[in-house]
Specification:
- With 462 residues, the protein is mostly helical.
- The chain starts with a helix and ends with a helix.
- The longest helix is centred in the first third of the chain and has 37 residues, at 59-95.
- The radius of gyration is 21 Å and the shape is globular.
- The protein contains 18 helices and no strands.
- The protein has helices at residues 2-6, 26-54, 59-95, 99-126, 128-136, 141-156, 158-173, 178-201, 205-227, 246-278, 282-298, 300-318, 322-354, 362-388, 390-395, 400-424, 429-453, 455-461.
Amino acid sequence: MRGAAFAPVFRKQKNKPLPAGYLFTNEDLKKLIAPLIVEQILAVTVGMVDTMMVSSAGEAATSGVSLVDMINNLLINLFAAVSTGGAVVSSQFLGQKKKDRACEAAEQLIVITGLISCAVMIGSIVFRRGLLGLLYGSIEADVMENALIYLILSAFSYPFLAIYNSCAALFRSMGNSKISMEASIVMNIINVAGDTLFIFGFHWGVAGAALASLISRIIACMILLYRLHNPKLDIHICLKRLSWKGMLIRRILNIGIPGGIENSIFQLGRVLVVSIIAMFGTTQIAANAVANNLDSMGVLPGQAMNLAMITVIGRCVGAGDFVQAEYYAKKMMKITYLINGLCCSAVIVTMPLTMLLYGLSPETLQLAAVLVLIHDGFAILLWPASFTLPNVLRASNDVKFPMCISILSMIIFRLGIGYVLAEGLGLGAVGVWCAMVLDWMVRVLCFAGRYRSGKWKKLGRS
């Protein structure tokens, strides 16, 4: 049924045989995608482990961590968008067989992400109380206290996380996602060990969870920087050569800034949505946090395919081969629908067991289960076309259209309709999550129409 629903979007092109020289074999795609899925699972488990372990300190601690995690996700997506800009530029240079230029772009990506993340870190620490008050208004004192502690320590990790994301994006540009997966494994082992020691051993609560994440991110960042310093790689960096090259940075930011604005406003919208949910009390905040943890597991394959799509389509665009770009777009979307559907179904089926991992009240867990069913049930049909398909556009320099659609849909549906359903009709968190599904539907219609129009190919040739 899913294939029939979206068949017109990815129908086969007549009289356009694929050239004999494939840019990516099936084996190349496996080597790129499989480690990305593992890496995305590990990335999500950092936040999930924090939430599960912190839940032992009570619902105020869990709520405080969840509120800050929404801000963290907003900023992390800003860093990831800039990294995507660098990945697109580097992939296009590799497609053009210009390895020296790809290395220059990589070095400029490290420079700009380092500067942006340090500025964000300082701003988050200095204005922490005002930021939380602005976004969430009047929240319970114990929740605010936990949120402030978690935000300060989280902010110190922003530069390391931003540079880690940039290095990982550059390895993906080379079609090598195994290295960043290995770094992610190390990061998660350190995070779990740190959580166990600091939360259960030293009883530091949210401070222990944040400190464990900080240490793990520092070490992962150092590992990838060291690995990327290898001159035998197609893309490598030299820290001694780091300097400011305006033209390359502008090219990276021309792609990264629209994506950064889109992702930041999207995550800001999610933060504001949580502020609506926060009006209904700690139980709904905690239920929303648990549901977000489990939902993120359901769409992990899609998140991995988002990253893989940038690499593959970017390389095709750089080579000027739009026949292969269309071929790989259709092929990778089919893969996304298959593995995303299986993973969302698995989350729903195993929910009775996973809910037992959270030490929260039955009322909270029951509401969380309803939210998970709404999200993952509809994600099987709508999520890939809402979030993976627009990366075909972005990889071919068509970045403004996805940005505008995402912002407008977020404001009108997630926030506007979400507020009406939650506050006006009294549905609370359930109303907000129903509005999210409407947002997805609008995205599917707009992005599928843009893909079929072929305008993205014209921008890719320019």
